[in-house]
């Protein structure tokens, strides 16, 4: 079931959307945040602003945090991205300490100057080998990699054909590169084909980049990568796949959907992030062409004009790859998937729908923002930290709670999360029904 909105439209903090403030008017740029802040403050004062929290302990399966008003919260943590629980792994801490002693804490330069270290050079080789590709280039963040690979290769006369639900870093990279952007319906190969055919009917001279993701984080679903690569080959386009959420965490060998679908080394361009499974920040782009690696290093602005990853980060990521590729990594993925399947099954037993297929991302459907905000206010008092997702991260009216599962979560953690969300949803529905009854009585 999806919960429908029956709340009082005048209820403070429950109405409105970030969409209302996306295009502010007025000549004074410094006043453009005023309306948004007033709306945000109304939600904050009513307890309906669950964003910008800060942790006070490591982001493990349970943690202490504060909301952005400084109020303490504590509970079982399904808000952090650490799918294999590697952030707390003792070997990760050890290699980070060793890296500080050997290289210091700062890369102190762009990768095109002297920002590289022995560990960053080794990491590029490790990533390429892991994906069975020839080359890889590092970026300071996953966002920078997604934006940068598009900005580095696509020019104004070129075309971009992208899944309508592609991550914002990919959308922003596309928008900064060309006006020739075509969106195809989510996972719809026929619609993608139609877009490509229409472009090639008019333009055979310029490039086309087709963009998708190995695992879409808000819907937990995946495209047919082999079919997409065949489609790109047919129309002379280049396929770029974002593997931020599945690499390391899914598949027997941890190679994500590219590995699961037998596409290792066969996708034109692969980009990803280390912030979900590999216990660090940073990103990469992998290619089968040394020429593209070198071109991106110098023409992709988010790597050329940014400091390189720190030696601590590259050492940590390298060790995380070691663990991911080991028997221990396989066991962690199996534990993670058991947790995922258990969480999804218990949500179903509680009558709550979830999106997509089993992955470390389990999104419980809510729908109406007002109801979701009531639930979000209640969850910390029930000892649960879970992320409310609403517009602009998802469509308006499609709010959900995105639980990010870790291998380290226990069965009791999972039961606690389901009980908390079920109770909070029930209470929100009762509150909405009471307000509706009062409104009808007043109208009568």
The CATH class of the largest domain is Alpha Beta
Element order: H for helix, E for strand? HEEEHHEHEHEHEHEHEEHHHHEHEEEH
Which strand order do you get reading across the main beta sheet? 4-10-9-8-7-5-6
What's the CATH H-level homologous superfamily of the largest domain? Type I PLP-dependent aspartate aminotransferase-like (Major domain)
Shape: globular
- The span between the termini is 31 Å
Structural class: alpha/beta
The number of strands is: 14
Roughly how many Å is the radius of gyration? 23 Å
Number of helices: 14
Q: Unreliable segments (pLDDT under 50, ≥5 consecutive)?
A: 1-10
Biggest sheet layout: 7 strands, mixed
Mean pLDDT: 94
What name does the CATH topology of the largest domain carry?
Answer: Aspartate Aminotransferase, domain 2
- Approximately how much helix is present in the residues? 40-55%
Query: Which CATH architecture of the largest domain would you pick?
Result: 3-Layer(aba) Sandwich
Strand content: 5-15%
- Please tell me the total number of domains: 2
């Amino acid at each position: 079931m999806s919960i429908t909105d029956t709340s009082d439209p005048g209820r403070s903090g429950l109405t409105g959307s970030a969409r209302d403030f996306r295009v502010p008017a007025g000549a004074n740029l410094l006043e453009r945040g005023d309306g948004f802040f007033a709306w945000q403050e109304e939600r904050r004062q009513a307890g309906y602003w669950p964003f910008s929290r800060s942790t006070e302990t490591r982001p493990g399966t349970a943690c202490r945090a504060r909301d952005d008003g400084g109020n303490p919260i504590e509970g079982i943590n399904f808000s952090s991205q650490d799918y294999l629980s590697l952030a707390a792994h003792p070997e990760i801490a050890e290699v980070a300490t060793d890296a500080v002693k050997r290289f210091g804490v700062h890369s102190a330069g762009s990768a095109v100057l002297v920002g590289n270290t022995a560990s960053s050079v080794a990491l590029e080789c490790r990533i390429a080998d892991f994906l069975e590709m020839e080359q890889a280039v590092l970026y300071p963040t996953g966002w920078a990699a997604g934006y940068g690979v598009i900005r580095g290769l696509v020019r104004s006369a070129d075309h971009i054909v992208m899944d309508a639900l592609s991550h914002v870093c990919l959308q922003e990279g596309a928008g900064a590169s060309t006006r020739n952007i075509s969106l195809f319906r989510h996972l719809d190969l026929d619609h993608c084909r139609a877009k490509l055919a229409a472009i090639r009917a008019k333009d055979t001279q310029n490039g086309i980049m087709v963009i998708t993701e190995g695992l879409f984080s808000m819907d937990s679903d995946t495209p047919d990568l082999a079919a997409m690569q065949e489609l790109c080959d047919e129309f002379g386009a280049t396929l770029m796949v974002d593997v931020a959420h599945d690499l390391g965490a899914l598949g027997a060998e941890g190679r994500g959907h590219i590995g699961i679908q037998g596409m290792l080394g066969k996708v034109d361009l692969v980009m990803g992030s280390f912030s979900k499974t590999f216990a660090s920040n940073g990103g990469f782009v992998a290619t089968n062409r040394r020429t593209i690696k070198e071109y991106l290093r110098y023409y992709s602005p988010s790597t050329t004009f940014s400091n390189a990853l720190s030696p601590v980060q590259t050492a940590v990521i390298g060790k995380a790859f070691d663990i991911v590729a080991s028997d221990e990594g396989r066991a962690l993925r199996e534990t993670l998937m058991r947790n995922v399947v258990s969480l999804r099954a218990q949500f179903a037993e509680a009558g709550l729908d979830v999106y997509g297929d089993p992955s470390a991302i389990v999104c419980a459907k809510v729908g109406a923002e007002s109801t979701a905000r009531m639930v979000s206010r209640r969850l910390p008092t029930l000892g649960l930290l879970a992320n409310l997702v609403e517009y602009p991260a998802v469509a308006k009216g499609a709010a959900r709670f995105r639980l990010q599962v870790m291998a380290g979560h226990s069965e009791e953690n999972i039961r606690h999360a389901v009980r908390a969300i079920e109770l909070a949803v029930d209470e929100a529905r009762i509150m909405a029904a009471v307000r509706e009854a009062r409104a009808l009585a007043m109208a009568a």
